């Protein structure tokens, strides 16, 4: 499994801090938004090497990068690639649908609720409580407290940091992809 990071419109250092906060054991590719529009799925698709077609991908996207990630993930699948999941951080207003798991991570409860109306609410999600600034979610996910919400919405919400929530998802998809081979 490889992780594809689709940042928003901000400095590269913030995305590097985000990745450092997660401590991923998987190879991580950061889409270079300083060279191409953060919201462009075609540029993300060009960024991915054809050699990645045999490796399951997990997209993690922030803000405008969510637009690029959902489009690129769907196109990647149409070209024969495997997408295990998309983790969308503050993709408010972006409709999310695909033949893969989609998780929303939001900087506040209202964003979580209103974004769920546009898809991506069939899988586990997270919202910050207390609410944080939009960019804090990306810059410092290890400091953002909130609640994990299970897909079936029947389980009690679990208090957790955004980084711990995302790391748990990555571990879940690492296990599921290793059992398929």
Description:
With about 180 residues, the chain is an alpha/beta fold. It has a single domain (about 1-180), classed as Rossmann fold (3-Layer(aba) Sandwich), CATH 3.40.50.1820. It has 6 helices and 8 strands. The protein has an 8-stranded mixed beta sheet with strand order 2-1-3-4-5-6-7-8, with helices on both faces. Helix 2 packs across helix 3. It starts with a strand and ends with a helix. The model has no long low-confidence stretch (mean pLDDT about 90).
Fold topology:
Elements: E1 2-6, H1 12-22, E2 27-30, H2 41-47, E3 57-62, H3 64-78, E4 83-89, E5 101-106, H4 109-116, E6 125-128, H5 134-139, E7 145-149, E8 158-161, H6 162-180
Helix pairs in contact: 2-3
What CATH first level would be assigned? Alpha Beta
Number of helices: 6
Q: Which architecture would the CATH scheme give at its second level? A: 3-Layer(aba) Sandwich
DSSP strand tally: 8
The assigned structural class equals alpha/beta
Shape: globular
> Could you describe the largest sheet, including whether it forms a barrel?
8 strands, mixed
How many domains comprise the coordinates?
1
Report how far the terminal alpha carbons are from each other. 11 Å
Adjacency order of strands in the biggest sheet = 2-1-3-4-5-6-7-8
SSE sequence, one letter per element: EHEHEHEEHEHEEH
Protein name: Alpha/beta hydrolase
Organism: Phormidesmis priestleyi ULC007
